[in-house]
Q: What sequence folds into this?
């Protein structure tokens, strides 16, 4: 079974692409969603509180996402720490998940910051979803009701599309002009033969 | 006594006949003219006190012709009015030799049906009207005819719709809430059958209003394409315009692929319907009120890369609706 990763910068259309792969019958592991859930895990909570303080969770034990995001955005050490807590556990969950999907020719792992976290070595093939920055900003503004500056700052912290395209095995261009399904079907066809 | 008078007296004493001066000749002329004027005046008064007979010709014009009739022939198109009166009375007449018209109001005169479509009115009934019009005693008038004949033929009629024409300009954010209501919606048109049969509707005059931000009720006339041949009843209609303040809104709704006899997954599965809505209806909007489907006409669903999405149902109180995205990609699930 091929372990395929789908990555792409914010607003590139990863969710749509993985949804199409799912519709084609390919199992998809949503790493970012799984990572978010891990913050509720007691062991994770303990480690996060130890580093970021008790106040990083509210009185109901819910993570203060906005505050954590602001901290790790401005503090590379804090970012490294949180990655060290979350990513090994996410990979662990992924491996368990893979064990349940051995029968498939290939499976998909969806993650926004694959290259940034040097996780590429865990996968056989990598698909990058590429879209012009302006379009990505517009999509996120509509989706999250976020400001232009907030999204621009996030994009600046991510690896450029060009760099990711060079590192990826496949590139799906989701620029609103080219059909994405036909691109996905081609990749699906290649991966299904392996 | 001046020198001239003295000289004249001296001359008379001497038996010499004096020559008349220019002043004396002038006075005589004036006296002569005055006498002539007085004589003329007396002559005029004597003449005006005499009886005279004058004849005036009046053109006949019928008014208030029944809406279901048309005047097709006038057996008598003029009426001669003889006036016998003292010169003084004739002088005061409000009348000219030409361009005299007598209007005969068919609603207020006894109309006698003669035979078939021929009718007549007695001129005797016109006397008071004529006397009043030309400011003379009725007894001083004699008319050349006792009756006036005319032909009224039945008009063909049918009901036709009224179509309003308007050039409306609304204040920002305001618009018509619903189509303008015309009262009555239909009017009766009377006229020759060959013309009436060609009519399906009649337009109102163009209603021009600016900066509209409240309800409007306006009475407006109809545009008669053949004023001499057609008659509309009523001739004026009322247009009611309901005005509301509008806002833009949007709602996300799923695309219904049930018309395609295959399992289809579109990307995205939902579309956003943007529309304008009156503020008063804003809280009544639900996603289920909108129905969006793929446009399948001329599309081979098996080979196409994308399909156009169309809105087939929306609440009546929304308008200017458009879909984003207008096209979606899809997979046929095997």
A:
């Amino acid at each position: 079974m091929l372990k395929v990763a789908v990555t792409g910068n914010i607003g590139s259309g990863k969710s749509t692409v993985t949804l199409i792969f799912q519709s084609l019958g390919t199992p998809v592991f949503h790493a970012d969603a799984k990572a978010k859930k891990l913050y509720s895990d007691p062991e994770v909570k303990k480690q996060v509180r130890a580093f970021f303080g008790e106040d990083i969770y509210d009185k109901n034990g819910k993570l203060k996402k906005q505050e954590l995001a602001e901290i790790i955005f401005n503090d590379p050490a804090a970012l490294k720490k949180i990655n060290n807590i979350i990513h090994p556990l996410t990979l662990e969950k992924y491996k368990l998940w893979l064990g349940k999907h051995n029968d498939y020719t290939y499976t998909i792992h969806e993650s926004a910051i694959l290259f940034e976290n040097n996780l590429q070595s865990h996968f056989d093939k990598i698909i990058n979803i590429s879209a012009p920055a302006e379009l990505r900003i517009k999509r996120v503004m509509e989706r999250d009701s976020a400001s232009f500056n907030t999204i621009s700052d996030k994009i600046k912290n991510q690896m450029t599309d060009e760099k990711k395209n060079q590192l990826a095995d496949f590139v799906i261009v989701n620029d609103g002009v080219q059909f994405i399904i036909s691109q996905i079907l081609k990749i699906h066809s290649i991966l299904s033969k392996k | 006594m001046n020198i001239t008078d003295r000289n004249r007296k001296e001359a008379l004493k001497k038996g010499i006949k004096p020559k008349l001066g220019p002043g004396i000749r002038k006075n005589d002329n004036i006296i002569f003219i005055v006498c002539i004027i007085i004589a003329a005046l007396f002559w005029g008064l004597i003449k005006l006190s005499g009886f005279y007979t004058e004849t005036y010709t009046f053109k006949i014009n019928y008014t208030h012709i029944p809406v279901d009739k048309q005047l097709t022939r006038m057996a008598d198109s003029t009426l001669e009015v003889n006036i016998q009166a003292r010169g003084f009375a004739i002088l005061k007449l409000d009348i000219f030799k030409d361009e005299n018209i007598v209007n005969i109001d068919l609603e207020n005169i006894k109309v006698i049906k003669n035979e078939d479509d021929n009718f007549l009115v007695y001129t005797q009934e016109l006397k008071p009207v004529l006397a009043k019009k030309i400011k003379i005693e009725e007894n001083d008038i004699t008319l050349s005819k006792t009756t006036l004949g005319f032909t009224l033929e039945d008009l063909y009629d049918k009901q036709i719709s009224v179509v309003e024409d308007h050039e409306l300009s609304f204040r920002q954010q305001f618009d018509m809430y619903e189509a303008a209501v015309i009262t009555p919606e239909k009017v009766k048109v009377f006229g020759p059958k060959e013309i009436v049969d060609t009519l399906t509707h009649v337009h109102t005059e163009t209603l021009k209003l600016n900066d509209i931000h409240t309800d409007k009720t306006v009475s407006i006339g109809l545009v008669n394409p053949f004023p001499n041949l057609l008659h509309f009843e009523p001739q004026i209609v009322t247009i009611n315009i309901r005005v509301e303040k509008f806002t833009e809104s949007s709602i996300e709704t799923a695309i219904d692929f049930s018309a395609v006899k295959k399992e289809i997954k579109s990307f995205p599965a939902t579309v956003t319907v943007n529309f304008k809505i009156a503020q008063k209806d804003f809280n009544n909007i639900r996603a289920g009120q909108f129905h969006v489907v793929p446009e399948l006409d001329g599309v081979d669903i098996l080979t196409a890369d994308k399909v156009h999405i169309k809105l087939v149902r929306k609440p009546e109180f929304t308008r200017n609706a458009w879909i984003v995205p207008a096209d979606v990609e899809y997979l046929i699930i095997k």
About this structure: The radius of gyration of chain A is 17 Å.
